[in-house]
Amino acid sequence: MIDARPSNVVSWTFFVLLWPLSLLYQMVTGLRATLYRTGLMAVYRASVPVVSIGNLTVGGTGKTPVADALVKRLLGQGFRVAVVSRGYGGRFQEAVGCVAKGDGRLLLSPQEAGDEPCLLAVRNPSLLVYVARKRALGVQAAERAGAQVIVLDDGFQHLAVHREVDIVLLDARAPLGNGQLLPAGPLREAPDALNRANLVIMTHAAQMCEKIPFHGTVLRCRHRLADTLMTLDGGEVPWSQLEGQEVLAFAGIARPDDFFAALRARGVALVATLALNDHQDYSAEQLNRLIQSCDNKKLLITTEKDAVKLRTAALPCPCLVVPLDLVFDEPDCFDGVLGRLLERVK
Question: pTM for this structure?
Fold first, then answer.
């Protein structure tokens, strides 16, 4: 369990100074939710079902693998599925951008659209993917393209679009952080906002966690490293290829240390690690830093989220990619709950 409380004089001082701002933030977010709920702020209702998947906190909860699992279930049931994302970390500035039309090609680069939309498109070649700062415009574009179900990525706080199903992810190690809203804590909304959710999924749930203010269905899942590594161009590589190699691991994700710890637990002898910013853009400067870090290392290893931005990079040594698999504590439960929720949207 992660201890999210202030642990020293400095952290307590910052907490006390930021706490009044958190109260103000809570008032603003609460008023905003009320305005949408009462219809005083416009809510776009799509002609097809919308399923939102999002977080209550900032930081990494492992959302992309869960979104990928959701998309795969929907595609497997024969739906024409679209994902609409804000495109966080991307440089795209127009109203709506089409990342993928479901034909296996990326129409926008990860640098333009952000890494997560592109990764979902690469993992699911038949998926429609759009980025839009005003999510309603992206939803409308997906409708025009013939989407039968739309997944609103990171959409729990995006109340300007009506959704039939709201799925919220919480990190089981510290589901509510220190219990405080931004900026004194990690919460985007007060915990009672969970009342809007239809389903809560506790990620990283290797151990029991604290109770949460939610009385609906709660599922538990864990992320594990896949049984097979990948090359940057999509080839499969066995883990045995790492034996005897000098391996440098790097990651531009919310919690890179979790990735490094998982590699070590898998038996990988890392000679060096490089923790980068979440959604690292891999500009020329950052690529040069990575290349310099290679030194005399023989092999690089990274996450899928990073790899989608490095497929054309000229790296001085081979780079392998570690896909993540999602494991639910009760394997049939996610499909069963999703099936019951989707009965509401047919």
Answer: 0.91
